[in-house]
Design goal:
The relative contact order is 0.10. This protein has 2 domains: 48 residues, no CATH class; 39 residues, no CATH class. By secondary structure, the protein is mainly alpha-helical. It is rod-shaped. It has a two-stranded antiparallel ribbon with strand order 1-2. It contains 3 helices and 2 strands. It binds zinc ion. Zinc ion binds next to loops.
Length: 118
């Protein structure tokens, strides 16, 4: 199928594996098309997006539910009790089996830190 790069963001593109576009069902010769119409609603990013992924602030996020940038995820290593074993607010130590915990609310009742990252 002689599809050209412009087809991916052309208003006339059929977006069909068997037809290139409404005007040229079998594609065009060369690398440009006289009938090319820019489609304002279609970005190249959307077309190349892997399934289940999404763009968030320009970062490709593979798990849509987790809207953290890589930087935020790295910072989490420095303070989250899952990695440090300590409350980020008062420094109270979690119990030894803390790696099997699901909720990370502070064990110190006077602190009251609640984990809102999960
Ligand atoms: Zn605490």
């Amino acid at each position: 199928m002689p599809k050209i790069p412009d087809c991916n963001h052309c208003l006339l593109s059929a977006h069909d594996p068997h037809i290139v576009c409404a005007v040229h069902p079998e594609g065009v010769e060369g690398d440009s098309c006289l009938d090319f119409r820019e489609d304002p609603n279609t970005s190249v990013e959307e077309l190349w997006l892997p399934q289940g992924a999404s763009y968030y602030n320009g970062e490709l996020i593979l798990q849509p539910r987790q809207h953290w940038t890589q930087q935020q995820q790295l910072e989490l290593l420095d303070w989250h009790p899952l990695f440090t074993g300590r409350c980020p607010q008062c420094g109270a130590e979690y119990e030894r089996d803390y790696t099997s915990r699901v909720h990370w609310d502070c064990p110190n009742p006077e602190c009251g830190w609640l984990d809102d990252t999960v």
